[in-house]
């Protein structure tokens, strides 16, 4: 595992991060948006990609269109998880919204899986040998509830092998800002709980919690890329639910395969 060397892609002022491993697979479309290049007004400024935020729907749709155009996919081929902080995963073959699911997997070409986030992580997975794709929404509830294992299990049902997976863990809230109660800290392994004398309550390293679960499922450490960004520390580039008081936009993690 290494800190990701993902590069910032720029097209018509829309900005997103592209996983390094995507460069090795020309058929792959994958990335994680920043908050720049859209049409939304504050507090959703400007590239808000989430419809559940209170933003104007027409703004969100235009933002999605802009990102899709910049990243090179058809916005009409976007399949989105409904996201309820659970661990349910669905195999999908067609675009649309899938309520009640936090993970989506597919073997379909020209279908882009999407996860919205604003402190939680979007985890993007690809088996290039069997061309199986996965994406999951990994907040703390989903992580302790088993969303990572459930997503990989669903991919295995489609023929994927954990040893062949390349995985990107997107920007999310970092341990310096992810303060939790003792009851939440107790649901994590001690290795990802952080304590300091100046902190009144424990903090959790969400990215490391995700990485540990990927390793437990058999994903090679060298095939896991972890974005270094802390969304709560960099609201100039990222939306952060916690840092911005709960009223903000959403980024989009996306992964798909060209035919």
From TrEMBL:
Alphabetized, the UniProt keywords read:
Hydrolase, Metal-binding, Transferase, Zinc
Instruction: Establish whether keyword Hydrolase is in the entry.
Output: yes
Q: Name one GO molecular function term.
A: copper ion binding
Q: Domain of life here?
A: Bacteria
Indicate yes or no for the key word Zinc.
yes
Q: Which reaction does it catalyse?
A: inosine + phosphate = alpha-D-ribose 1-phosphate + hypoxanthine; adenosine + H2O + H(+) = inosine + NH4(+); S-methyl-5'-thioadenosine + phosphate = 5-(methylsulfanyl)-alpha-D-ribose 1-phosphate + adenine; adenosine + phosphate = alpha-D-ribose 1-phosphate + adenine
* Entry's family note: Belongs to the purine nucleoside phosphorylase YfiH/LACC1 family.
Protein name, per record? Purine nucleoside phosphorylase
User: Which organism was this protein described from?
Assistant: Rhodothermus marinus (strain ATCC 43812 / DSM 4252 / R-10)
